[in-house]
Structure formats: structure tokens, C-alpha cells
Amino acid sequence: MTDDNKIVIRERSTPSKLRYASQKLIEMHDQLIDRGVDKQRATLIGIALHLESMAQAAESSAGPNLTPGFVNEPGSTSELLPAEILAAIDVPPYLSTACDTALRVEPADVPDATGWARLLHARCRLNNKFTGAPCPCTCHGREA
Ligand SMILES: [Zn+2]
Ligand SMILES: [Zn+2]
Fold this sequence. Notes:
Blueprint: H1 15-31, H2 38-60, H3 83-88, H4 97-105, H5 113-122
Bound molecules: zinc ion (ZN) (2 copies).
């Protein structure tokens, strides 16, 4: 690696900048494949993976949405599959991760298990975001 290939990462880099830098390192790595510099190549891959994990960490602390570009508030249909796909597949019963976790927390021997469970039930997104299948948890006051 020569000095004019320098990549500067500032502390407040956004995930997309980190991913760009990571991609550049992987390109450098690929250019070195036939040169017999295994140690330097391993270092490049190591740094690239580190930048990728920094990007993921930055995204996960950015907000409650797991998929960048999508807003998944309860009942949101932004990621619902098209009707022809839904008609062609079996949709299994869906218990949301929030309510599933709540039902496990409720009987746990921990301080304020009921309070934690109530918080989790309140975080349920009500429908499977891809299939629209409703969460049958009794906390929603519907028939199971
Ligand atoms: Zn529930
Ligand atoms: Zn639920």
C-alpha cells in the first residue's frame, strides 16, 4: 500500500462512509492477490471487517428500525409482500418476537417481571411485517 492510497476515517463517520472505506480495502486486497503479500492482505481484510462491524454498530444505535430505509411501526405495511406472492405461500401462525419474549419473561423469577413483560407486549408490531399474519397473543384482546 502506498501513501497516496490513504483512507482517512473520522470518528463520526456514517455507516455508508464506513462501508465505502471497507469496500476500498477489499478492492486493494483483491489487487494484491497475485503478489504474495499474505500478511498485508490479511491486515486489509481484518480492517475491512472491523469497519463493517463499526457500520453495523452505528446503524443499530441510530434508531429502532432494523432495516435501513424502512419504518416498521406496529401495523406498518411497508414491507408486506405483494398479494400474488402471499396467495402462493402457506403463512404459518405468527407470534411476534415481542409477545413471545414477554410470555417467557412473565414467569421468570426476576424483579418486576410483570412490568418488563408489559413493556414487551406493548412493543408488539401486531402483524408479521412480511406476511401480515396477525399476532395471536391474548394481550391484543383478540381470539387466538
Ligand atoms: Zn402480547
Ligand atoms: Zn403480539
